[in-house]
Amino acid sequence: MEIEIRADAGFAVPALYDYCEAEGIIYTVGLITNPRLERLAEDLLDEAKEDHQTEGEKVRLFSAGLYAAASWERERRVVYKAEAMEKGTNTRFVVSTRTEEPKELYEWYVGRAQSENHIKDFKLALKADRLSCHRFIANQFRLLLHAAAYWLLDTLRRRLVASGARRMQLDTLRLSLIKVGGRVRELLTKVRLHLASGHPGQRPWHALSLAFGNAYE
Question: Left (φ > 0), alpha (ψ -120 to 50) or beta: where does 6 sit?
Answer without folding.
Answer: beta
